[in-house]
Specification:
Blueprint (H helix, E strand, L loop, with lengths): L5 H8 L3 E3 L2 E2 L17 E2 L2 H17 L4 E6 L8 H18 L2 E8 L1 H6 L2 H10 L1 E7 L5 H6 L15 H12 L3 E5 L10 H12 L1
Parallel strand pairs: 1-4, 4-5, 5-6, 6-7
Antiparallel strand pairs: 2-3
Length: 203
C-alpha cells in the first residue's frame, strides 16, 4: 500500500477492497477451486489489526467516512474463537478512531446455524453488513454429488432446513443474507430437478 501514490490510494479506499484474514476451509465441495479440505487458518491477528488501522487512518486523512471491506475467509464462522478475537480488535479500532467499517464475507450454512447469538451480535457491532451463504443447489442428491454434504439436514427434515435457518438467523441479527447458488452440476439426477426445487424454495 505504501507504494501507491496519493491519487491511487484515495481511489483504492473509495471502492470495496479485500482484507486477508484467513485461508482454508474444511468443506470438500468438488466444484470449488479454493483452498479446501483443511481447517481454516488465521493470519497473525495483531498484524491484521495493524493493516486495518493503517487503512482506516489513511481513509480518515482523505476525508473518507467509512471503508467497505470483503474478508478473505471462505467460511467466516468456522473458527468462532479466532473470529471473536479479530472482532474485538476491530471494535477497539472503531472506538479509538471513531471510524465506520462495513464488512462482507462468505460462510457455510452450517457454520452460520452453529454460530452463537453473541458472536453474531458482536460481528454486527463490528460492522458486518452481509454474508454470502453457500447454498449451491437445492436437493440432497446435488449436495451429495458435489461433496457439499454439510448442507444436508437431518433425516426426515425439510432438505432445505439448514439453508433456510442460516438465512433466517442472519436476517434476525440485522445482517443481510446473500444466497450463493451454483447450477450446472454433473449429478446422477437431472439438473432440472435441482432447478425446480430452487424455484419452489423461492415461492
Amino acid at each position: 500500500w505504501e507504494t501507491f501514490d496519493e491519487e491511487k490510494m484515495r481511489a483504492y479506499l473509495t471502492h470495496s477492497l479485500s482484507l486477508y484474514v484467513s485461508q482454508g476451509c474444511e468443506g470438500t465441495c468438488n466444484f470449488c477451486q479454493a483452498d479446501k479440505d483443511r481447517p481454516e487458518a488465521y493470519r497473525n491477528l495483531d498484524v491484521a489489526a495493524i493493516d486495518l488501522r493503517w487503512l482506516a487512518e489513511k481513509a480518515q486523512g482523505f476525508g473518507i467516512g467509512h471503508l467497505e471491506i470483503y474478508f478473505s475467509n471462505l467460511d467466516l464462522f468456522q473458527k468462532p474463537v479466532e473470529l471473536e478475537a479479530f472482532l474485538d480488535r476491530i471494535l477497539e479500532i472503531r472506538e479509538e478512531l471513531q471510524f465506520d467499517f462495513r464488512f462482507t464475507a462468505l460462510a457455510q450454512v452450517c457454520s452460520v446455524v452453529a454460530a452463537s447469538d453473541a458472536l453474531l451480535s458482536k460481528a454486527k457491532r463490528a460492522g458486518l453488513i452481509s454474508v454470502g451463504v453457500g447454498v449451491d443447489g437445492a436437493t440432497p442428491a446435488a449436495w451429495r454429488s458435489t461433496g457439499k454434504v454439510q448442507n444436508l439436514s437431518a433425516e426426515g427434515e425439510n432438505p432445505a432446513k439448514l439453508c433456510e435457518d442460516s438465512v433466517r438467523k442472519l436476517y434476525e441479527h440485522g445482517i443481510t443474507p446473500e444466497i450463493l447458488m451454483v447450477f450446472g452440476h454433473v449429478v446422477k439426477t437431472k439438473g432440472k430437478e435441482d432447478l425446480e426445487a430452487s424455484k419452489a424454495d423461492l415461492k
